[in-house]
Structure formats: structure tokens, C-alpha cells
């Protein structure tokens, strides 16, 4: 279970076997079932989770009671509510498993212990946050500058592994459209 996360970390820098052993000892493996919530609105997020296997979604509930999906997370990605985790404030988000998933959890106290003992791990988490911010920037630009059809085509091209694993109504929510409108787009693309 630790092979993938160790590969992830070693892409960010050079770490000794002893460093990796300390890191691995601070991680808590957790299995979650499909449809299980990892985080609910109002809770303080007590984890940064590396996804060893599975697929999760992060969403909020808007003023109309509709779920709005902000992101999907799959293997070799991290999932958390970064603001809630670092500021120790209640989250406005939900994180739910779309598939049975295997996670490696890092709590705030264990992360602090890691960074105190091995400050070179700061680079790993900085790069993780940079990757997350970059993905959010791309998502924002796509949402503002692209048509619904362009957003869908780009999503399918950019994330084919996600598109095959999540229900179409989740993709519609992520892209900011109704499932019916997404069906029209898909039909139009097939007939071209």
C-alpha cells in the first residue's frame, strides 16, 4: 500500500529509507466504502488523504439544495479541505467515496510531527498544494472562457480515467450543467 505514495514522495525529492520509514509510520491506512462520507459540512477536516485506490468527490450544497461538485480525486492524488485542515475551521464541503477506496491519512498532529522531524518534507506538501492550485486555476478558466460543449470535451480529454468511472450526472454537476443538457451535448457530439 505504501509503494505508490513512496513513489509520489520520491518524485518530489530524494529521501532516505529511514525518512520514508518515519513518513510511512505516521500515515494511517483507512478503507472507505462507496457512498461513505469522509467529511461533512460543519466538521473540521482532520486529514490530508492520499488515495492509494478508489475515486472520491468533493462537493458542497448550494442555496437550492443541489450538490455542486468541485473536484474528483483518484489514485495518486490527495484529497482534503485545505482551509479547514490548516485553519481548524468548520468545512463547507463534503467528501464522499464514489468507489470503495483505500486511503493513507495524515492528521494535523502527525503532519506537524513529520515536518518537525523531517523539514525536507515541506517540499512534498508545497508541490502538492501547487498542483492543486494549478488544477483549480485551469478549472476556473475553463468555466469562464469555454462553452459547455468545450468544457465537456476538455474534461473527457484531460481526465479520461475519471470520465469512465463516475456517473454522468456527477460530470454534469462538475461542469455546471444539468444532466439533460449534458445528454444533448453528448448526442450532438456522437452525430458529428
Describe the protein:
The structure is a single chain. This protein is of the alpha+beta class and 192 residues long. The chain has a domain at 2-118: Jelly Rolls, CATH 2.60.120. Helix content is 49%, strand content 21%. The chain has 9 helices and 8 strands. The chain has helices at 2-10, 17-26, 82-87, 108-117, 122-145, 148-158, 160-163, 168-175, 179-191; strands spanning 28-32, 37-39, 48-53, 55-61, 67-74, 78-79, 94-97, 101-106. The strands form 2 sheets. A 4-stranded antiparallel beta sheet has the order 1-8-3-6. The chain has a 4-stranded antiparallel beta sheet with strand order 2-7-4-5. Strand 4 and strand 5 (67-74) form a beta hairpin. The longest helix has 24 residues, at 122-145. The protein is globular, with a radius of gyration of 18 Å. The chain starts with a helix and ends with a helix. The mean pLDDT is 94.
Amino acid at each position: 500500500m505504501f509503494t505508490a505514495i513512496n513513489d509520489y514522495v520520491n518524485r518530489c525529492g530524494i529521501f532516505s529509507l529511514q525518512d520514508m520509514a518515519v513518513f510511512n509510520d505516521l500515515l494511517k491506512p483507512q478503507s472507505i466504502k462507496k457512498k461513505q462520507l469522509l467529511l461533512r459540512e460543519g466538521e473540521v477536516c482532520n486529514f490530508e488523504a492520499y488515495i492509494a485506490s478508489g475515486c472520491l468527490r468533493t462537493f458542497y450544497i448550494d442555496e437550492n439544495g443541489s450538490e455542486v461538485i468541485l473536484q474528483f480525486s483518484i489514485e495518486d492524488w490527495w484529497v482534503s479541505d485545505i482551509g479547514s485542515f490548516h485553519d481548524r475551521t468548520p468545512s463547507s464541503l463534503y467528501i464522499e467515496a464514489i468507489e470503495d477506496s483505500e486511503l493513507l491519512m495524515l492528521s494535523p498532529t502527525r503532519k506537524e510531527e513529520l515536518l518537525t522531524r523531517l523539514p525536507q518534507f515541506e517540499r512534498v506538501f508545497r508541490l502538492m498544494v501547487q498542483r492543486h492550485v494549478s488544477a483549480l486555476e485551469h478549472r476556473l478558466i475553463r468555466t469562464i472562457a469555454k462553452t459547455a460543449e468545450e468544457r465537456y470535451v476538455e474534461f473527457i480529454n484531460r481526465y479520461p480515467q475519471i470520465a469512465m468511472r463516475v456517473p454522468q450526472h456527477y460530470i454534469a454537476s462538475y461542469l455546471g450543467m444539468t444532466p439533460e443538457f449534458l445528454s444533448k451535448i453528448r448526442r450532438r457530439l456522437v452525430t458529428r
